[in-house]
Amino acid sequence: MTLGRPRKYHTAEEQREAHRLRNKKHYDRNRTKIADKRRVLRAEKQIAVNESESAPVGRRMGGRRGTPLALARALFKRCQGKMRIIKGSRKIVDILMEVCVEVRDRSGGEPGTIAAIVEAHQDVLSKSGVASDLSRCHHEILNLVGCGQELNEVGKLVREVDNLQRGLDAIYAEGCLNYAGFLADFENRRLDFLH
């Protein structure tokens, strides 16, 4: 008496055929997810290729995947994700307020400490590369015709990043040059970014 189930496939050809059918069923069930993932990977690969070349993005296929607009959209989505990571659920003003509170509580008016606190927050922004990616995305969309909505969305995100950078620079300058005035302005909510 033998133990275990009887063999389901007796030849290598039967095994290959069963494996092919399983793969086909999986693909049929998940076709859209797989296509979306491939599309994003192709767009990111194309962006990387275009970055390495000095020539501008070609205008090969109007309106389809792989076009400059599709690549710019993929880059913009990546920038949005990076900003979501940086911001979390906070607004730009809330981030700047947290930096001010940290400067007030930890620095004691010491310019070196203020610089270290502000630079730590600037490093998060610069290491993400979101500013340079947005700049490139904005440039790509500017060169296309009929992309007003995309240009507006990119513009909003560019302004957010600029406001964050300018706010950090203002905190550094005000805190180092006139710490007592900075504290008074902060307590009275008279700093530029609070308006």
Descriptive report:
This protein has 195 residues and is an all-alpha fold. Helix content is 74%, strand content 0%. Helix 3 (68-87) runs parallel beside helix 7, helix 4 packs antiparallel against helix 5 (111-128) and helix 4 (92-106) runs parallel beside helix 7. The longest helix has 30 residues, at 148-177. The chain is elongated, with a radius of gyration of 26 Å. Mean pLDDT is 81; it is low at 54-63.
Descriptive labels:
mainly alpha
Give the overall silhouette: elongated
What is the residue-mean pLDDT, rounded to a whole number? 81
Per DSSP E runs of 2 or more residues, the count of β-strands stands at 0
Report the sheet with the most strands, covering strand number, pairing sense and barrel closure. Answer: none
What is the string of SSEs from the N terminus onward?
A: HHHHHHHH
Low-confidence regions: 54-63
Helical stretch tally? 8
Share in helix: over 70%
Structural class: mainly alpha
Distance between the first and last residues' Cα:
86 Å
Question: Strand fraction band?
Answer: under 5%
Radius of gyration: 26 Å
